[in-house]
């Protein structure tokens, strides 16, 4: 009997492992050929599965034709289009951009599936096993469905086919060459872009296949989020092969599949209530273990000579002026906002504080945390348990609680980051994502009492699934009432922002910048790279923890949905859109997520209710706003420095046109007073301000053209649009280009003599090329 | 007294031996040249010595101490510094801050003996002659000057062994002349050992007392500049061996 059970679960494990293997090999194929880690891989599997459901069960096509349509046409097309339209544009961007753009695609796919299919408990999307659940064969007395057999067989076939493709065919060998040196491959007559497109098509095909196979095995009811997070299982498996080796990837997938099933089989679920949560967390735990075992990476130098991301560091004076102006603006806004608007603004401010942690970590240090809000969850839990005084309406959170929360998050941050810090930035991103899912799947589901082994007392981490967190009161200062709390978060944000800029100006900040720009150079100057990275990660986790606790105290009561991994991802995406190198980028990111998109969404919903005849139109608009953030995120590849950078650059041009700026300030104040006098409502004030700010640079240029000359000169560079080697082909060769080449090659202009050395330098440059 | 020694270093990339049993010493008080055609393995050897690359076999010794297993930052703390052939400047900092941050990194080694970063930064900037561009963004200055910034940055850590990877490429003739004088000045008090990888032969011949020649991962000649100039193996390596071999 025991043997029979063992065999049963082993076979199930092999089936699951096979499907993981199919998914993971797709991930490896796209990563090795295009250098871009496809976070949207799980989302592609999800779209493929939903599409299959649509044609097979929605429209009732026969299974073979439906399969042919999805796997032979739709999925490869999706992969190819993804690469050509989006991923190709990521050449020459930093690792951060190359991680955030695929994440935006993933969020976009998720919203798209909610838009089109929206499975609910009343209307689940179910699909059955191929050949039905009753068609089974018997092996060693174990019944296996045809579907499971098919999944296993396909996994074997795909493993062999990929091996053959990469080692025995021209395209496959060329695909492997793409990774090593695209430029060299091109010189040898290969076409790296076309090969990368092919590999994305193949990757999407494998993802869709995995999605279609796994859904019936996992019960048949489709869940967009669960299928999207299939990417984590695939990552864990692919990590066994260091994201490169296919045989080891399949081995990892089998290990994963077996562990999941053995846990179900042999952990006593009735005694250990956490087993079902634990099962979900296995990929994440394996991911961590594998990360620990990976050997240290070679320290990389600056991966790209001239990264397209540019951030300008404000002076301390500018930082203080900006901080004070911001607080004044919030003070003025406070009196014209409706209570509901004030609440969502305060919510946005707390998200902005969490986003600040990303500015420090990602903008300054170039490291990535995909689970900032999960640290916020930990902060919330700590403040809930150790930082509440008083009862009922008099309950408040204490300064002590927030300090403990910050320290605790810093400590957990160290544990999460340490295994990955010696590796590439991508691995840190992956382990934080795994951590985020672990927090959501296990920690936040610890809702019942557990006996603590040594303290002989009972304790629940997340009692009854909802935490009530009151607003803070620090000593005599009570921030409970509404405008006060908004001002409190605004002032805190401003102070933290100034603090971050001061940090960046300090010797710590300079060392962090050095670390980001060239880890290899920093290490050869004697910097302990891991130690500094760890310090920054801990500091960032502490800020996220405080921000998260404040978010909970703004909301009053929170459940686990508030700390979902997708919220962390959206916040990171919007902060990058705003400008991850800027404190104001964090403000923009937090406000967009907390206020902007919900406000647009609400407006459409309200319009739809008010104008029943146009309901469909507004419903459409509503859905559109769902995928809007992701659409903006996807365009990051074109403008990786973020919106704030453009605004700063625009306004810097006006720095000398001081009278215009003063006039603009007065005009904006008049607009505000007009609102105070109830001439129009807040929406109009917003519209006026927006239009005014758009027009301001144009007006200023008309009024004071002389103040603009310098800025324009400085902004223009000869290589701005046409790559240097195409100058003279794409556009005529100008004197500017010659001067630019001369300076870059270190030559003085010929009129100063020195012709001989100049030609020597050109020769040297040719040799280097 | 030998400062830096390499014994029987072997590095293979796949089946390709990038370094084949290389031994070499870099002594203090002189400039040791390391030359060879492109792809000979010069930068690879620097990467091994500074700890960025683990060799397949062989040992590196600094003042007689085996440092083969130490990570890059520990080697730097023992007195090793380098520049990079492919520039590795801190592009988000100004020229001055690039040099200053090296001093700040040094003061965080935790070995005591801290330097006055501000005064030292100004001294180095003057020494390398970059006062005029000190406040510019490092990404805006010409390559020749950028290479000098890397040298200044390395000097901020007060190294005892300095490895320079093609520091003069991209420099004007006048700059190279000045740079040669700077190198000789640096070794003049006898405490610093410099290893110079460079393609500008007139500079190498002028400043180096001893020259090592690498070709296809093998050391083909060692000697004073005059010997190297007339060595048949070196001439073959650079001009191609006569037909029939």
Brief summary of the model shown:
Chain A is mainly α.
Main sheet makeup of chain B: 6 strands, mixed
Low-pLDDT parts of chain A are 711-720, 749-769
Q: End-to-end span of chain A in angstroms?
A: 69 Å
The proportion of residues forming helix of chain A, as a percent range, comes to 55-70%
Within the largest sheet of chain A, what's the order of strands?
1-2
Q: How many alpha or pi helices of chain B?
A: 9
Number of strands of chain A: 10
Counted beta strands of chain B: 10
Shape of chain B: globular
The oligomerization state is heterodimer
Helix count of chain A, per DSSP?
Answer: 30
Structural class of chain B: alpha/beta
Proportion of strand residues of chain A: under 5%
Radius of gyration of CA atoms of chain A, rounded to a whole number: 28 Å
Helix content of chain B: 25-40%
- Look at the structure and give the mean pLDDT of chain A: 82
If you had to describe this structure to a student in words, what would you say it looks like?
The complex is a heterodimer of chains A (769) and B (245). The C terminus of chain A is likely disordered. In chain A, helix 4 packs across helix 22 and helix 14 runs antiparallel to helix 21. Chain A contains 30 helices and ten strands. Helix content of chain A is 69%, strand content 3%. Chain A has 769 residues and is mainly alpha-helical. Chain A has a two-stranded antiparallel ribbon with strand order 1-2. Chain A has a two-stranded antiparallel sheet with strand order 3-4. Chain B has nine helices and ten strands. The mean pLDDT of chain B is 90. The longest helix of chain B has 15 residues. In chain B, the strands form two sheets. Chain B has a six-stranded mixed β-sheet, with helices on both faces. Chain B has 245 residues and is of the alpha/beta class. Classes of the chains: A mainly alpha (769), B alpha/beta (245). At the A-B interface, helix 19, helix 20, helix 29 and helix 30 of A face helix 2, strand 6, helix 3, helix 5 and helix 6 of B.
């Amino acid at each position: 009997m025991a043997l029979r059970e063992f065999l049963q679960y082993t076979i199930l494990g092999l089936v699951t492992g096979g499907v993981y293997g199919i998914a993971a090999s797709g991930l490896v194929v796209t990563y090795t050929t295009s250098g871009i880690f496809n976070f949207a891989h799980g989302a592609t599997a999800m779209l493929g599965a939903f599409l299959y459901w649509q044609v097979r069960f929605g429209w009732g096509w026969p299974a073979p034709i439906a399969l042919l349509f999805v796997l032979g046409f739709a999925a490869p097309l999706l992969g190819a289009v993804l690469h050509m339209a989006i991923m190709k544009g990521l050449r020459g961007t930093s690792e951060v951009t190359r991680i955030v753009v695929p994440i935006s695609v993933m969020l976009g796919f998720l919203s798209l599936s909610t838009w089109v299919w929206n499975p609910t408990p009343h209307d689940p999307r179910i699909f059955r096993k191929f050949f039905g659940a009753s068609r089974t064969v018997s092996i060693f007395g174990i019944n296996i469905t045809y579907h499971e057999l098919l999944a296993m067989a396909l996994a074997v076939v795909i493993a062999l086919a990929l091996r053959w493709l990469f080692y025995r065919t021209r395209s496959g060998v060329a695909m492997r060459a793409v990774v090593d040196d695209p430029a060299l491959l091109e010189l040898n007559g290969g076409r790296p872009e076309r090969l990368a497109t092919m590999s994305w098509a193949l990757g999407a095909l494998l993802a869709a296949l995995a999605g279609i196979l796994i859904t019936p095995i996992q019960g048949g009811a489709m869940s967009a989020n669960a299928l999207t997070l299939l990417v984590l299982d695939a990552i864990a498996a692919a990590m066994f092969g260091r994201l490169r080796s296919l045989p080891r990837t399949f081995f990892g997938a089998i290990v994963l599949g077996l562990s999941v099933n053995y846990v179900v089989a042999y952990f006593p679920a009735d005694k250990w209530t956490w087993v079902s949560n634990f099962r979900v967390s296995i990929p994440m735990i394996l991911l961590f273990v594998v990360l620990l075992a990976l050997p240290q990476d070679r320290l990389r130098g600056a991966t790209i000579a001239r990264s397209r991301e540019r951030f300008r560091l404000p002076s301390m004076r500018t930082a203080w002026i900006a901080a004070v102006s911001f607080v004044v603006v919030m003070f003025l806004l406070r009196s014209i906002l409706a209570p509901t608007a004030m609440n969502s603004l305060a919510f946005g401010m707390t998200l902005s504080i969490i986003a600040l942690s990303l500015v420090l970590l990602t903008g300054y240090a170039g490291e990535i945390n995909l689970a900032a809000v999960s640290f916020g969850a930990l902060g919330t839990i700590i403040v809930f348990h150790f930082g509440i005084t008083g009862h009922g309406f008099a309950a408040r959170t204490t300064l002590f609680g927030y300090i403990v929360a910050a320290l605790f998050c810093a400590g957990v941050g160290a544990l999460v980051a340490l295994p990955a810090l010696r590796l590439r930035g991508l691995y840190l991103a992956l382990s934080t994502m795994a951590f985020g899912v672990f927090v959501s799947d296990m920690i936040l589901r610890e809702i019942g009492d557990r006996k603590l082994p040594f303290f002989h007392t009972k304790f629940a981490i997340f009692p009854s699934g909802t935490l009530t967190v009151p607003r803070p009161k620090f000593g005599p200062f009570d921030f409970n009432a509404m405008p006060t709390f908004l001002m409190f978060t605004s002032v805190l944000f401003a102070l933290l922002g100034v603090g971050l800029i001061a940090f960046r100006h300090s010797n710590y900040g300079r060392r962090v910048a050095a670390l980001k720009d060239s880890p290899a150079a920093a290490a050869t100057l004697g910097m302990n790279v891991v130690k500094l990275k760890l310090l920054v990660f801990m500091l960032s986790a502490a800020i996220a923890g405080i921000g998260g606790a404040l978010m909970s105290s703004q909301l009053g009561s929170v459940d686990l949905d508030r700390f979902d991994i997708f919220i962390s991802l959206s916040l990171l995406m919007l902060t990058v859109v705003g400008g991850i190198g800027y404190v104001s980028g964090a403000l923009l990111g937090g406000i967009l997520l907390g206020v902007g998109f919900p406000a647009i969404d609400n407006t459409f919903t309200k319009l739809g209710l008010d104008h029943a005849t146009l309901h469909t139109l507004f419903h459409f608009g509503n859905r559109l706003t769902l995928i809007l953030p992701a659409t903006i995120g996807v365009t990051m590849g074109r403008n990786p420095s973020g919106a704030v950078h453009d605004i700063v650059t625009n306004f810097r041009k006006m720095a000398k046109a001081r009278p215009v700026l003063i006039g603009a300030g007065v005009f904006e104040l008049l607009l505000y007073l007009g609102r105070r006098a109830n001439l129009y409502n807040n929406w109009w004030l917003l519209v006026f301000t927006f239009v005014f700010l758009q027009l301001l640079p144009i007006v200023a240029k008309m009024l004071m053209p002389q103040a603009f000359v310098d800025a324009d000169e400085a902004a223009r560079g000869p290589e701005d649009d046409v790559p240097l080697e195409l100058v003279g082909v794409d556009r005529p060769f100008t004197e500017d280009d010659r001067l630019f080449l001369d300076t870059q090659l270190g030559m003085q202009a010929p009129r100063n003599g020195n012709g001989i050395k100049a030609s020597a330098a050109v020769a040297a440059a040719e040799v280097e090329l | 007294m030998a400062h830096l020694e390499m014994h029987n270093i072997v590095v293979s990339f796949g089946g390709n031996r990038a370094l084949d049993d290389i031994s070499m010493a870099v002594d203090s008080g002189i400039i040791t040249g390391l030359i060879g055609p492109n792809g000979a393995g010069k930068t690879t050897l620097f990467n091994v010595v500074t700890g960025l690359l683990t060799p397949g076999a062989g040992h590196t010794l600094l003042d007689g101490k085996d440092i083969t297993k130490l990570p890059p930052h520990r080697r730097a703390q023992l007195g090793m510094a380098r520049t990079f052939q492919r520039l590795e400047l801190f592009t988000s900092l100004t020229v001055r801050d690039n040099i200053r941050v090296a001093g700040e990194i040094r003061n965080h080694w935790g070995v005591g003996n801290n330097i006055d970063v501000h005064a030292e930064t100004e001294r180095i900037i003057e020494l390398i002659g970059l006062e005029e561009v000190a406040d510019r963004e490092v990404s805006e200055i010409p390559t020749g000057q950028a290479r000098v910034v890397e040298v200044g940055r390395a000097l901020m850590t007060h190294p005892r062994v300095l490895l320079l990877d093609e520091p003069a490429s991209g420099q004007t003739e006048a700059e190279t002349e000045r740079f040669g004088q700077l190198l000789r000045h640096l070794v003049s008090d006898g405490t610093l050992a410099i290893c110079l990888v460079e393609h500008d032969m007139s500079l190498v011949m002028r400043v180096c007392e001893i020259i090592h020649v690498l070709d296809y991962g093998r050391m083909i000649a060692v000697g004073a500049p005059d010997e190297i100039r007339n060595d048949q193996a070196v001439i073959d390596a650079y001009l191609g061996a006569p037909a029939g071999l």
